[in-house]
Design goal:
Elements (H helix, E strand, L loop, with lengths): L1 H44 L6 H54 L16 H34 L6 E13 L2 E4 L3 E6 L2 E8 L9 E8 L4 E4 L2 E5 L6 E9 L5 E11 L4
Antiparallel strand pairs: 1-2, 1-3, 1-9, 4-5, 5-6, 6-7, 8-9
Helix pairs in contact: 2-3
Length: 266
């Protein structure tokens, strides 16, 4: 009996020793299984947080960019209109200088070649304005030098530098109106251009009148309203020329005759 009890006790102890680790392992595995879903769930449900200041900054940036974009679009037409007006103003000044030099000197620097204003974008308009300003500056200098030469000829005239012009006939027709101008006489220096006022020769106080440009160019050409009507021979004392030119406003004609002679230098 004692031996049987001892054997039974040993068997019980062996069974207990073998079963305890297995149970503990099962508990550990069960614990790991239970903890894993909690971890995954926690990672999936935690949202990324954005502070109120960051949201306000983003919204402000978007609003500012939108306002700036709308502002630039609204000001663009006005800006282009201003540029177009500047370009047209520079065109007129450049054309005036070209015409003056062409008439008074006999030639002029070539104008910049530009397309019509409505065919140019803002970048091309800016470039055109710069080109025209450069041309105007260059031709202004040429005109100033020309004026200085004319003044020198007035003081010390060489043969052929002075002519006396007698406008014997001139009939002006424009705006359904026709009148004969009074005869006029004047003296021109080579390189000089002047405007004379043609008036009705019947009634002195009559408001009928018309301006006419007469130029004696440095190349000895007589130019009336931009058209060459004769070339002066400095060695020939007297001559005459007929003309049929448009009025300065291009709304009529002036038909007439003038006599001219070279003034001897004293």
């Amino acid at each position: 009996m004692p031996t049987f009890r001892s054997g039974l006790l040993l068997a019980t102890l062996l069974l207990s020793a073998c079963s305890m680790p297995i149970f503990q392992d099962l508990q550990n595995k069960q614990t790991e299984k239970n903890s894993t879903p909690n971890t995954v769930s926690t990672e999936q449900t935690i949202p990324s947080k954005t502070t109120d200041n960051e949201v306000a900054t983003v919204e402000t940036s978007v609003i500012t960019e939108t306002n700036n974009s709308n502002g630039s679009k609204a000001s663009s037409p006005d800006s282009n209109a201003d540029l177009a007006e500047q370009l047209n103003t520079q065109r007129k000044l450049a054309n005036a200088n070209f015409t003056e030099l062409k008439n008074r000197v006999g030639n002029a620097p070539e104008l910049p070649r530009l397309l019509a204003t409505e065919q140019l974008n803002s970048k091309e308009i800016n470039l055109g304005i710069q080109q025209l300003r450069s041309y105007i500056s260059k031709t202004n200098t040429a005109i100033a030098l020309l004026n200085a030469r004319v003044e020198d000829r007035e003081k010390v005239a060489m043969n052929g530098d002075l002519i006396r012009i007698f406008l014997s006939e001139a009939t002006v027709t424009h705006d359904n109106m026709t009148f004969k101008a009074q005869p006029l006489v004047g003296q021109w220096v080579r390189g000089e251009s002047r405007v004379i006022r043609l008036k009705d020769n019947i009634l002195f106080e009559n408001p009928k009148s018309e301006d006419m440009h007469i130029t004696f160019s440095e190349t000895y050409q007589l130019v009336v309203n931009g058209e060459v009507i004769s070339t002066v021979n400095p060695k020939k004392e007297k001559n005459n020329a007929s003309f049929n030119v448009t009025t300065s406003g291009n709304n009529g004609t002036i038909v007439g005759k003038l006599d001219y002679r070279v003034v001897d230098n004293e």
